[in-house]
Structures are given as structure tokens and as C-alpha cells.
Amino acid sequence: MEYRIIRSRRKTIAIQVKNGEVVVRAPLFTADRTIRKFVDGHAEWIGKALEKSRKLAGERERAIETDGVITHDEIRALAKKAVSVIPERVAHFASILGVTYGRITIRMQRSKWGSCSAKGNLNFNCLLMLAPPEVLDGVVVHELCHRLEMNHSERFYRHVLSVLPDYYERRKWLKNNGDLLMARAFAGEDNA
């Protein structure tokens, strides 16, 4: 099995499978045989992860062929729509949760759907405008609950579920479809 090694000041060995490539991250002075033994011990997991990565790559290609690349003009239109829709949803759920927030920013992000800074500033991905409204609300509530808990503890999720009892179903939609939206949005950049 082929893999690339990245050595750094980390303390443990880790394996990452991304875009069909196996990357092993290891402490600076870890012997090659130690790394090989670690990789061999995780061969089954690596095989499954590579298969999943190949399957996802195929799904991305099909999504782009079927639904097309999201153009820069479409992204601008989504961002404009998000600027009018998302603050309204944030205000609605902030009042339910009894929280305050700072600035709301709409961005085109490669991997995040939303974030909440320690100062209470909220960021949202404009691609959320392509998701069902209940999925958007799930991301909004998730980020607003960080105003109560800046972590993903059991207590954090109790806050989320108190507002959206079906939160995990909403999150599942993003897990199943979000990567395909990202692929369509960034497909043009990969070829540029």
C-alpha cells in the first residue's frame, strides 16, 4: 500500500485518507518500520476509507454532470439571497434561545457551513441557500447554541435538541448532500 508521510512535532501517528490518497502524519523521529507497522495494523480501516473516498469521488462527478457547476454569478446570487434570509432566521432563533450575537457574515467556504467566534460573530456559507430551509435552520441553531456552550458537549446538544428535536435528521441531510454541493461550487476552480 502506498502512502505519503508527513513528519512534524506531533506526538502520535495518525492516518488520513483524502481524495484517494493515504497520508500518514508522524512525529519527527519516528522510524520508518514503526510507521509501516502502524499502517499495516490499520490496513482494514484504510481499505474501507479508500473505498469510501472513491465512491464519494464518483458521486461528486455525477453531481457535477447532473446538476452542473455552480457558477460565480450563481454564487453571488446565493450570497445576496443569504444576506436577506439568514439574519432573519438568526434573529428568530436567538430570541427563542435567549442569546445575543455579534456580526453576521456570509461567505463561500470550502468546508464549513457555519461558525461562531468567541465574540459571538456568526459566519454562514452561502451554499446553505441550496439546502432545504429546515437544514439552514439546523445550522443557525447549532451556531447560536455556541453562544451558550463553546464546545460540542452533551450539554451543547441538549440546547440544540430543545429547539430542534429532529436536529440529527437535519444534520444528516448535510452529511449526505453537503459535500456534493461543495464539489459543484468548487469544480470550476479545480480546473482553472
**Beta strand count:** 6
CATH class of the largest domain: Alpha Beta
Radius of gyration in whole Å, from Cα? 20 Å
Strand content: 5-15%
Contiguous runs where pLDDT drops below 50 for at least 5 residues: none
Structural class: alpha/beta
Overall pLDDT level: 92
Question: Summed up, what is this model?
Answer:
This protein is of the alpha/beta class and 192 residues long.
Structural description of this entry:
The chain has two domains: 64 residues, no CATH class; 120 residues, Metalloproteases ("zincins"), catalytic domain (Zincin-like, 2-Layer Sandwich). Helix content is 57%, strand content 15%. It is built from six helices and six strands. The strands form two sheets. The protein has a three-stranded mixed beta sheet. The chain has a three-stranded mixed beta sheet with strand order 4-6-5, covered by helices on one side.
Notable characteristics:
alpha/beta; Zincin-like; 2 domains; three-stranded mixed sheet; 6 helices; 6 strands; 15% strand
